[in-house]
Amino acid sequence: MASDIDGSNELVENNVTGLRFRAGDPHQLAARISLLCDNPVLRTSLGQNARRYLLDQNLTWLSTGLQYANLYQQMLNRS
Prior knowledge:
Layout: E1 2-3, E2 20-21, H1 26-38, H2 40-56, H3 61-78
Parallel strand pairs: 1-2
């Protein structure tokens, strides 16, 4: 579940890896939550697709942490 703000579309493809809603629209968010609550097949499919996407892109906690550590080290080396 993600709002349609910049950046979130990189991780959440609507109806493939999750559901999107208009930022600031609580009614649409509630409708999306209800849809997931009422549809276990959709819930499972979105979850499996999201997991597969994250693993295919190597977007694990470890890889993300290492990327941040490398970025911080580069910034320290510049100063």
